[in-house]
Structures are given as structure tokens and as C-alpha cells.
Structure to design on (170 residues):
């Protein structure tokens, strides 16, 4: 599926562009307006960077927490650190493992969350920021022929940005 996202500065421009697309008899079921008074980014399904950050953190935590536990356990066994002087070696190694697992969890939270928030969400952050600043988006989805036709029509208007995307085949 191909997408075309055009950013327009105000409601009058977006309505004029939508009317121009309608006059050219493009299938209106494949054209969506996002902005105040229309669909929101969440209703349309635009990626939420917070959800992406949580997903990456969870994915990274599944790997780092067990690794951190093992590393903490082995580190305590090698160095013979006695965190709990009143207990035996196995309990101390286990506490070292728990501390290593905690370090792994923090690493997953900060590095996975940062990566998911900045990188994995792609251009969604920029489009969400524009919507929050009162701008409007016209999104056209469909075959490449429709996208080319919509691009020609939309270029007549005062666009802040126009970008085409191709959805990867899963």
C-alpha cells in the first residue's frame, strides 16, 4: 500500500485541497484529513512514539535482565564480594545476580526506550508535532497511480511538506 501525506497550514487550505481532490473524482474513501475537527492521529493509527518506546524497552528487557542476572552472579562468584556478611556464598551470589538483573532492567528502560522513542517511530513524531501545532494533514492511500494523481493536485496548494511512503510487505 502506498501513502501520500501532505501537511497544510490551516483549515481553509486543507478543505480547499480536499475539494480539489473530490472534483477530480478521486475515491474519497481513500483520503483522510487529520487535524482539529477531523480525525486525530490515534484514530487514524499513526504510530505513537510512547508505545514504540515501551515495545522496544520490553523487547530489550527480555534479553538484558537474564544476562544481567548471570553477569551479576558470576561477577560476585569471581570477586567473592560479601554483600551480606551474615549469609553463605550462594545467597551472596544470588544477591549479586539480582543486582545485575536490576542493572539490565535499567539499561533496557533507558536505551530501549530512547531508541524506540526517537528511531522506531519514524516520521510519526514530526507529524504528531505538526498536528499539535494546529496544522492539518491530508493522507491518501492506494495504488501508485492514485498517489501520483493526488500529488499533482495537491502541489497547487500551499503545502508545508508532502511525502510519499510505501508500506513494506510483511
Amino acid at each position: 500500500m502506498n501513502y501520500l501525506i501532505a501537511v497544510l497550514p490551516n483549515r481553509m487550505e486543507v478543505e480547499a485541497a480536499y475539494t480539489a481532490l473530490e472534483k477530480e473524482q478521486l475515491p474519497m474513501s481513500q483520503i483522510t484529513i487529520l487535524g482539529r475537527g477531523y480525525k486525530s492521529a490515534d484514530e487514524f493509527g499513526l504510530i505513537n512514539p510512547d508505545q514504540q518506546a515501551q515495545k522496544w524497552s520490553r523487547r530489550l528487557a527480555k534479553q538484558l535482565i537474564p544476562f544481567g542476572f548471570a553477569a551479576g552472579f558470576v561477577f560476585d562468584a569471581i570477586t567473592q564480594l560479601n554483600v551480606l556478611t551474615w549469609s553463605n556464598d550462594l545467597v551472596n551470589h544470588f544477591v549479586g545476580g539480582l543486582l545485575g538483573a536490576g542493572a539490565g532492567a535499567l539499561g533496557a528502560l533507558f536505551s530501549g526506550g530512547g531508541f524506540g522513542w526517537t528511531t522506531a517511530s519514524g516520521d510519526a513524531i514530526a507529524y504528531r508535532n505538526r498536528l499539535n501545532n494546529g496544522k492539518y494533514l491530508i493522507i491518501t492511500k492506494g495504488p501508485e497511480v492514485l498517489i501520483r494523481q493526488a500529488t499533482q493536485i495537491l502541489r497547487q496548494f500551499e503545502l508545508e511538506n508532502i511525502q510519499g511512503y510505501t508500506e513494506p510487505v510483511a
